[in-house]
Write a structure and sequence with these properties.
single chain; 290 residues; alpha/beta; four-stranded antiparallel β-sheet; 11 strands
Length: 290
């Protein structure tokens, strides 16, 4: 009797599911959204949170992932990592970047006076997932600047630039970024690559907090971000979790003091110390300033 009842319940459930129509595709003027992308979009708040879709869903065979832009956000889905839906005002997190992937310009709640979507900062890309790599492509990244030298994975459409830097120790940990000619040459390589890139750029070292933290602070200074905001953004960096406290303000402050002592500020540092040309400096400033 129990087996009969169980069979009957299963049969009724099957009929019920068969009778329920699948969620309809979302279509409109020039766009279609469907399947797992649609489900991810709806779970994230749909039009209220992300605006309407823009164009049709794209599919990466290489990364087994799907992607679609919306008016004010982005939606991804992959078999390996599930769905992600992120408003344009936020930065999507990369699973394999130790929590330190974010826009150098900050996010909406604490945005800096910089263009968003131009430069991203990250920890090493070696452990990124296939979804992470697809996200980099769909964010429009065309250059990967490796401040640790690096052996990053090859990602179609993204060229790699090696600009290896080395930190010091103690409270003067970042002072060699100012005093070492080798480090200054690497910074010149990194900033030139950023200034001349055709698309967005990702910069990273091993953990995405020290060498990356200094270059990010330099970019923010070029854009005219006040020092108190630069400090707050710098202190967000952690090793394993976004927001984890594993950097020290004194490291940044001592390097900035050294920069002013030697070069009288960011422009002198980059032109006289790092060796950027006036035209490259101007191009960099125009690219990142809001």
């Amino acid at each position: 009797m129990r087996r009969m009842l169980a069979w009957l319940c299963a049969a009724l459930l099957s009929l019920s599911l068969a009778a329920s129509p699948a969620a309809a595709d979302l279509t409109g003027d020039g766009y279609t959204m469907k399947g797992r992308i649609l489900a991810t979009y709806q779970a994230a708040g749909g039009e209220d949170a992300l605006g309407l879709p823009v164009g049709v869903e794209s599919h990466s065979v290489t990364y087994k992932a799907y992607y679609q832009r919306t008016e004010t956000g982005r939606v991804w889905w992959s078999r390996a990592d599930g769905g992600k839906a992120v408003p344009d005002a936020k930065t999507v997190r990369l699973k394999g970047a130790r929590g330190n992937f974010r826009d150098v310009a900050g996010e909406a709640a604490d945005g800096l006076t910089m263009q968003r979507g131009v430069i991203y900062r990250s920890a090493d890309l070696d452990t990124t997932s296939s979804m992470d790599r697809y996200i980099l492509q769909t964010l429009g990244v065309t250059v990967d600047v490796m401040l640790n030298g690096g052996s990053d994975p090859t990602i179609a459409g993204i060229s790699k630039v090696s600009a290896k830097m080395n930190a010091g120790s103690g409270d003067g940990r970042y002072e060699p970024f100012v005093t070492s000619s080798t480090n200054r040459a690497a910074i010149k390589e990194a900033l030139t690559a950023i200034a001349t890139a055709k698309g967005a750029v990702v910069i990273h070292c091993a953990a995405g907090k020290d060498r990356t933290g200094w270059v990010s602070a330099v970019l923010q200074m070029v854009a005219g971000v006040p020092l108190d905001q630069i400090r707050r953004e710098y202190l967000k960096s952690g090793w394993k979790t976004y927001g984890g406290q594993s950097v020290k303000q004194v490291w940044l402050d001592r390097a900035i003091t050294k920069m002013y002592d030697r070069y009288d500020g960011i422009e002198g540092y980059l032109l006289d110390g790092v060796g950027l040309s006036q035209s490259t400096y101007a191009k960099l400033a125009a690219k990142i300033a809001a």
